[in-house]
Amino acid sequence: MVSPYDSLGNIVPTPWGNIDDINASGRYSPLYLKTNNPEWVDRVRRLRTFNSVYAEVEILTGLKYRANLGLSFAQQHNAQFQPEDLPGKPSFFRAVQGNIASVQNGETWGYTLENLLTYDKLIKDKHKINFTGLYSIQENQSFDNFVQKDSIADNFVQFYNLALSTPINSNNTALGGGENRWALISYMGRLNYAFNNKYLVTLTYRRDGSSRLAAGNQWFNYWAGSVGWNIIDERFMERFRNINNLKLRLSYGTTSNQAINPYQSLGLVNNSNGIGGNAGITRYNFGPTIVSGYNIINLPNPNLSWEFTNVFNVGVDYGFFNNRISGSIEAYWSKTNDILYGINLPVTSGVAGSYLTNIGQMENNGFEFSLSSLNVKSKSGFTFSTDLNLFVNNNKLLRLNGSITEQPGSQLFVGHSMTAIWDYNKLGIWQSNEATEAARFGAQPGQLKLLDRAGAADGKPDGRITIADKYVLGDQDADLQGGLTLRFGYKGFDLSSVIFARFGGTLISQLHQPNGAFLTILDGRRNSIKVDYWTPTNPTNWFPMPQTQISNVSDAWSTLGYYDASFVKMRSINLGYSFGKQALKRLGAQSVRLYFSVDNVAILHSPFYRQTGVDPEGTGTGNQGVGNPGNIRAGNNGTITLGLATPPRRTFTMGANISL
What we know:
Elements: H1 19-25, E1 41-60, E2 63-82, H2 91-96, E3 100-123, E4 127-150, E5 174-195, E6 199-210, E7 219-230, E8 243-257, E9 268-270, E10 283-286, E11 289-292, E12 295-298, E13 307-320, E14 325-337, E15 340-344, E16 354-358, E17 360-377, E18 383-400, E19 406-407, E20 412-413, E21 420-423, E22 426-429, H3 435-440, E23 448-450, E24 471-475, E25 480-490, E26 493-503, E27 506-508, E28 562-564, E29 567-578, H4 581-587, E30 591-605, H5 607-612, E31 620-622, E32 632-633, E33 639-641, E34 651-659
Antiparallel strand pairs: 1-2, 2-3, 3-4, 4-5, 5-6, 6-7, 7-8, 8-13, 9-12, 10-11, 13-14, 14-17, 15-16, 15-32, 17-18, 18-25, 19-20, 21-24, 22-23, 25-26, 26-29, 27-28, 29-30, 30-34, 31-33
């Protein structure tokens, strides 16, 4: 958004725009890391290892035991140092902060042990039986610690001995760390039966125990069953010679979810008030005495339990013309009970953040369609094939615990999607010829024009914009999504391209919500992203006039962030060449393939991109655009938003696959 260099070619030390941003962030240009100054350091070192081993023994004919062991270990070391005599560093920071150093170390380890007992039996060449029994245990632990200090004795010490310091600003002294550990134990039994390979039955029973959930609710039992019919193997199908595969599948069962952070059922406390990079200590006033103590950061939930989903699925697999055309059609209906969800608490609770609990019931239904076709296969070796997939999912919240039907602060509305957007309806911008009408609402031309839809005793517009005028505008769910892969081949060369599309739904752009991103505060104090803002000579209906007050309603800023989420993107292009037999013989290799690929190639269609020039794919999660903190859906951490995180990148990759 700003130039990284000044007119003389020197690095701009704080390219964030103005002193307000510097004081707020204390960040400096990362280009200093490219200079030859060895004292400016920002280092990250990682070590990761994943290992697996198994042993298998046949006890009796058809009866086998197998043990799978997976091990993982990771270490990470972060170290930073900023000298106080950095060229161009403001004198304010040299006097108050001095140099500053920090170190953070972390470690994670885990293992998964699976014990499998399988039995296979074929009776009279018609009855095929397979049984699998499983006992597994999975455990994971991680921890990290952090320390930061300023005024290190000399720059050459950097972060190697933080004791050689006399901090002059306690806000720059920070200590932190954390640890978590969780485990999962599973028992499972599965029976497969096939008669004449035409009629198939599968029955599964499972029992899981999770340490993440509350005591007394840590175990969950569930089952599933499915049947299949290979219609193609029936005699009456012999007359349909162009049909090569036709199979009908039905299934019903229960799945479960416990993917939440550890310790969510416990009451947690902290001795930090969050001031000065976790440096501030919580203090309490007892008359003339001030003492340090702890504050609550997580309320206990002794009833936190499993989330589980009952699913019914019907599917058809097909293949025609020697499988030149093949694919599947799926339809499903599911109902999720005891949804794990983070409820936003009011500030009067005295507890920051959300309260994780089981809130109610929702449903999902939809379909999936896939089609693969071999379009061209010539004698010269040229081939052309396509893979198409389309899918739709409809989501609805069916009920909440108790008799309530909505919780706006937590973005929950019975009868609507879990990604529902509840807010004012932005009609546009008040124009100059609407000054009189705007004044009735306490607004003026150039400010946001919002829909007055409720508030009076009879439910009709009351001439005011209040919280009663908020309603569910829509949701983030797409109407249709899908992808298309094109594949070409000719004499060792292969070329493929992947296109992905999304149609419908609402995109939430935090880039365009001034209260969420300073890039669109049109106050002239910093550079901003390009928007078509209102002026008397440019009566646009997109953005209000440049001023700090965009509306007579303080929380209407979020309405500037809603856009059509539809887009079509060229996801990737991949080109490869596989060496022929003669070349492989000379090289002494079994196979050699050279390849080149480009990811995130182009945006082929997007109303949002056409209007803003910004990639329409989400970059983060969190704020849902209602002026309050984003909700935490277990395993999802909020809905997808387009914010200030790293944008999608175009990546070029060259490589070789070699087998000797």
